[in-house]
Design brief:
This protein is of the alpha/beta class. Helix content is about 35%, strand content about 25%.
């Protein structure tokens, strides 16, 4: 353990968000990769139909936390989770909800666009087909809807049969967002979705996140505090596996309560 980690072994989260029925409630979780303790006593309520940003330096546990929310860590050998996670009151690590259903209701978009080597249409229809939907009219309608939602429809409507790899990086990421949206999830998890994109593509995705956040719950990992400021309603600052501070984004970025948050948002921390 570094001296810094020792000093902050007992960080108590400062939380200042409005009351309300949470979409997701994380209740005192601890997470480990083997002996490595990477999330420490985290409790957090995520409010519905808002954008919540998770910020903090590299390695502080943001991606691990995000993957806890749709059980993506289950595949990582040596991973262990203690504590409870509720989605609309359902314990997601119990038999109450099958994992396929969980993943279709809590969708995910990754750092690097990862379309399948298939047509644009087939990429978006993927999640519907694995759920057994075969009817062409329903597939057509949902593919168009999802591509409209991800602001890609106008650019691809005449080339739906083209391979997804023929799209630019920014278009590929919007395609991945459409693929995630096609099953009409209630929550969208996004892990640094613009970090591989140029500034113009980034702006488009940020606009899209703001739009989506009016109708669904978006949880966005970003190491860019300016991006958090532009698109999120609430922001949570993670440090060394702790949730340090969680509040209204504007307050977190301009008038933080914890000295560690202040040091991060003012750029004094790496
Ligand atoms: N698959 C893994 N196996 C072992 N350690 C991991 C794994 N993934 C992440 N870690 C470690 O867990 C800690 C948190 O990582 P991560 O959640 O990726 O942080 P962030 O997304 O904030 O950069 C880091 O110390 C990282 O090295
Ligand atoms: Mg990460």
């Amino acid at each position: 353990m570094t001296a810094e980690a020792k000093d902050y072994a007992e960080i108590k989260s400062i939380v200042d968000i409005p009351d309300g029925t949470p979409e997701i409630e994380v209740d005192d979780i601890n997470a480990y990769y083997g002996n490595k303790h990477v999330l420490k006593n985290i409790s957090m309520k995520i409010l519905p139909r808002r954008v919540t940003a998770l910020i903090g330096p590299s390695g502080c546990g943001k991606s691990t936390f995000l993957r806890v929310l749709n059980r993506m860590n289950d595949y990582i050998e040596g991973f262990r989770l203690e504590g409870k996670v509720y989605f609309k009151g359902i314990d997601i690590y119990s038999d109450e909800i099958p994992i396929e259903e969980l993943r279709s209701r809590i969708g995910m978009v990754f750092q690097k666009p990862n379309p399948f080597p298939q047509s644009i249409y087939d990429n978006v229809a993927f999640g519907l087909r694995i759920r057994g939907i075969k009817k062409k009219s329903i597939l057509d309608e949902t593919v168009e809807w999802a591509l409209q939602q991800s602001a890609l429809w106008d650019e691809v409507k005449d080339r739906l049969k083209d391979n997804a790899y023929s799209l630019s990086g920014g278009q590929q990421q919007r395609l991945c967002i459409a693929r995630a949206l096609a099953t009409k999830p209630e929550v969208l998890l996004m892990d640094e979705p613009t970090s591989a994109l140029d500034p113009i593509a980034t702006t488009r995705i940020e606009k899209l996140i703001s739009e989506l956040g009016k109708e669904m719950t978006v949880i966005l990992v970003t190491h860019n505090i300016h991006q958090a400021g532009r698109v999120s309603h609430y922001a949570a600052f993670f440090y060394l596996g702790h949730l340090v501070e969680y509040s209204d984004t504007k307050k977190l970025l301009t008038a933080p309560s914890h000295p560690l948050t202040e040091s991060y948002v003012t750029g004094r921390m790496g």
